[in-house]
């Protein structure tokens, strides 16, 4: 990953042509912001590779993968970025193998391997990114990285995502997020979202789930939670 470009930097003719269909959906400004975003994914597994594939195809500025675990046969069952050929993945880390596969998805996106242990990365390293996605890490590591993201002078979004069997969880900390909301017959109004840190969300009893939705698909149950200061509401579908 690396630093972002100048705000006034325009999309190249090649980028405009390649991303034409999605630009029609979310506009040029959104595509320009995406092309300047630098993302770090710590933990390359069946959950995060889908995210990696999608942002590479969409034209993210750069993607760095951190996962020093050596590829095993078990990884082949859940990671479509790892070729079923031991001569390709043998002795290599998940990050190394997936990095090469992702480069083929979109040669215009910089994909690189970031070697190291997520629990030991420092603030200077974190400053290189705009978004950090963490998976299969201990709670201690999640708290450590989320806290470091909040201490930086620049705005760094933090995501923690995990999935095991039929259960999954995701935590999102965008810190403060402003957006315009247009009401019928009125002028757009600026809205402000304030996200709690993982430390607050996990340990402050004043924060509850404002909305919990449970959907059942045969033996599969999905749980969606939104951190809030309000009392919990539960809806069964």
Please describe what this structure looks like.
With 237 residues, the chain is α/β, with parallel strands linked by helices. It folds into 2 domains: 26-204, Rossmann fold (3-Layer(aba) Sandwich), CATH 3.40.50.720; 205-237, no CATH class. The protein has helices at 13-18, 20-36, 48-58, 73-76, 86-89, 94-105, 123-126, 139-151, 198-203, and strands spanning 38-42, 62-66, 110-113, 131-134, 157-164, 167-173, 176-181, 189-194, 208-217, 220-228, 234-236. A 6-stranded mixed β-sheet has the order 3-2-1-4-5-6, with helices on both faces. It has a 3-stranded mixed β-sheet with strand order 10-9-11, with no helix packed on it. β9 (208-217) and β10 form a beta hairpin. The longest helix has 17 residues, at 20-36. The radius of gyration is 19 Å and the shape is globular. The relative contact order is 0.11. The model is unreliable at 1-7 and 205-237 (pLDDT under 50). Pathway: Protein modification. It comes from Aegilops tauschii subsp. strangulata. This is THIF-type NAD/FAD binding fold domain-containing protein. Residues 19-156 form the THIF-type NAD/FAD binding fold domain. One of its GO terms (molecular function) is SUMO activating enzyme activity.
């Amino acid at each position: 990953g690396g630093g972002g470009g100048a705000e006034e930097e325009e999309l190249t003719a090649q980028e405009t042509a390649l991303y034409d269909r999605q630009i029609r959906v979310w506009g040029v400004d959104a595509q320009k912001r995406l092309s300047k975003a630098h993302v770090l994914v710590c933990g390359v597994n069946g959950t995060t590779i889908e995210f990696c594939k999608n942002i590479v195809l969409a034209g993210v500025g750069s993607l760095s993968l951190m996962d020093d675990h050596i590829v095993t046969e078990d990884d082949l069952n859940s990671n479509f970025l790892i070729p079923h050929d031991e001569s390709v993945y043998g002795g290599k880390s998940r990050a190394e193998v997936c990095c090469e596969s992702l480069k083929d998805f979109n040669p215009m996106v910089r994909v690189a391997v970031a070697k190291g242990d997520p629990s030991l990365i420092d603030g200077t390293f974190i400053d290189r990114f705009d978004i950090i996605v963490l998976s299969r890490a201990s709670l201690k590591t999640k708290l450590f990285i989320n806290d470091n993201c909040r201490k930086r002078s620049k705005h760094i979004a933090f995501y923690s995502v995990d999935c095991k069997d039929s259960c999954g969880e995701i935590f999102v900390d965008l810190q403060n997020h402003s957006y315009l909301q247009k009401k019928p017959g009125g002028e757009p109004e600026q809205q402000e979202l304030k996200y709690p840190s993982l430390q607050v969300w996990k340990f402050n009893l004043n924060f509850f789930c404002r909305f919990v939705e449970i959907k059942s698909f045969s033996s599969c149950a999905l749980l969606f939670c939104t951190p809030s200061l309000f009392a919990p509401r539960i809806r069964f579908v």
